[in-house]
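Hey,
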Amino acid sequence: MSVNSRMIDESIKRYQIRVWFFKFGKKEPESMGCLETLGDMIFNGAKKLDEHEKIAVEYRDQLKKWGFTLKDLNEFPPTSQIEAWLVEDLSRVVKLALQRLGLVREELVREPMLIYGPLFWKTYGIPDHELVVAKDPEGKLHYSCNQLVVICLSESRIATYSADYNFLRNVFLNEKTVEYLYRDIVSVSTETKATNYSLPDGQTLKRTEVFRLAVASGDNIEVAINSPEIRGLFQGEPNLSNHEASVRVIREMLRTKKG
């Protein structure tokens, strides 16, 4: 496996995202797994990870050629950069959703809609120490992991792709795809519901605002988008996606298709 500039750029980006989250999420580097990531592997960790020794040496040598040091890697990116990186990462989920659903854009009556929200409770496939809520200097909350759903509207049906996204690792987990005919959709809404989510620190999230697509069969597509308790738990304002616009679009389509 050889190292190229794209791999190095991505590795540095992930490392700096971790550094930013453990600073503003008030986590110790060890608890974020940073001792197993790029910086340590390049400068200190090759002996511990023999299988990565060759690639670690390549990374180290290439970074030296570019003039990077561990201090450079540990500099904190501005909040605007973190937000831009999240938008950049999530922009590719639409293409992924179409692939998973077996659709092409020409089959859709409008562009796919992406709705996402915070994920900071115990979730399959995500280590507890990677579920981090960070508050930036302006008091805005950012999440290392997010729930998301991509909604695709065709002439005859609604197709959805849902997943959990780990921003620290740039991976989509727990993927699910489903399609419904318009006549089977009962409602689309945002509502507050009772929950029993277990947080990594031992607390319980008891109420959550969700985007909800309800189906006659009893199935639901849900994404947590906010919580009345978030402000109290973390003393900050959440960063939300534009879910209200998506609700309006889907309701309009339902009215059209169901007369």
